[in-house]
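Readers outside the structure-tokenisation community will struggle with the description of the input data as it stands. What matters is that the chain and its backbone geometry are given together, residue for residue. For illustration, here is how one protein appears when written out as sequence plus structure tokens:

…
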Amino acid sequence: MNVTDRFDHFVAIDWSGAKGAKQKGIAVAIADAGGGPPVLVERGKGWGREDVLVILRDDLPDDTLVGVDLGISLPHADCGAFFPANDVLLPHAPALWALIDDICSHEANLGAQAFVDHPSYRPYFRDGSDTGAHFFCDNADHRRGRFRVTEQVQASMGCKPYSNFNLVGAAQVGKSSLTGMRMLHQLRGRLPVWPVDPLPPSGSALVEIYTSLAALEAGRSAGRAKMRTVEELNTALTVLGSPAVSGSGAIDDHASDALLTAAWLRKVAGERERWAPRGLTDEIARTEGWTFGAF
């Protein structure tokens, strides 16, 4: 497939697993394939997860590549299953999304607390009070919890990924990923999710992003991935060949993450090797998924 001119728009979403109807950690930015600086998409009193769902389901521009900063699945390859001590058969990521959404169907705002509280799945997670008996895999070579293959690749690139089974600490990604999986289930049939789904020859698609990867390619280090001034952001955008955004002074780091990553998606989405990373097998694609740009 020729991916050089595949998309007309590039949307980057900094996601959040926080409680409530609105999440301060959500930011949405868009970059046009025709050029110009990335633009922050504002929404009244702020974004909620269900607001993002509605936009992606009903109001997305044609031929848009959407990147969402969350884990689209849980580790599988390390233990041969998402939940190796559980009798529930989950053959692929969409089955996992459906399970999470079903268990949490009564929760508003795409919440996922019911899943991590469920007696069949709680032993796989680590929260502030408990490390579940199955949080670690017997095959793990570290004590940070289970990693997907793509997260192992991220680490080799200089990033500092966390396990999607981790629910504690400022860098926890578990809740944001689980809430995101509810959204992915509700988008099923509307928006393909690469690489769980093959990239279609036309139309829009969604990929998992890790904003630190964009920051690294924009000249930042893993320890300095966050940009908290417009000046820092514009320096990084210049490295990516993007026009600068207007303004000066302080900027919310969620907004800067989204703006930079939208420009990064525009720059790299046409590179064929990004869609065929080493280590991405058919089995990993359908179970664990992948982070776009990790290769």
Remarks:
- The beta strands are 9-14, 27-32, 39-40, 64-68, 205-208.
